[in-house]
Every structure is written in C-alpha cells, then in structure tokens.
Amino acid sequence: MLDPGAENTPTVRIAALKCLATLARTVPHISIHSHANRVLRALATRSRGIDDPKRQVRVEAVDAREAFFVLSAQKG
Q: Tens digit of pLDDT for each residue in 21-40?
C-alpha cells in the first residue's frame, strides 16, 4: 500500500499511513510490538513512507513512524 504507483494514489497511501499510526496508538502493546521493527524498516525504505514524492504522504509517514518508535520503546 505504501508503494507509489497508479493504483496507490497519494490519498490511498495517506489513509494507509493513518491506519498504521492509529494501530500503534490504540492496539494493546503485546499484540503489535512484534511488528514494530518491520513497520519501521518499511517506512524508511526508499520511495516509501518518509521518502515518498508527495509531501503530505511524507508528513503522515513521519507521524506513523513516530508512533511506532514510541511503541518499540515501551516495555512489555
């Protein structure tokens, strides 16, 4: 969902990133903590997330990344 392309418009990418940020903030730590590192790596991948060509997508990616950084810093 984060790959720029014809089927993944900026609106779709923004919605996906907002969902990720919401998951990190609302789902219990124990249920989602094991996925935090994978999400952080995906958001930092070239042409995805924080490196997206569209500014608003990058803004949402930074927000989602911050939420997962906070999650990964929490202890069980």
A: 999 999 998 899 899 999 99
Give me the percent of the chain exceeding a pLDDT of 70: 89
d(CA 8, CA 25): 24
Segments making up each domain of the chain, as ranges: 10-73
3-state secondary structure the chain: CCCCCCCCCHHHHHHHHHHHHHHHHHCCHHHHHHHHHHHHHHHHCCCCHHHCCCHHHHHHHHHHHHHHHHHHHCCC
pLDDT for 20: 95
Please say whether the beta carbons of 49 and 18 come within 8 A.
no
Check if the beta carbon of residue 8 is closer than 8 Å to that of residue 2.
yes
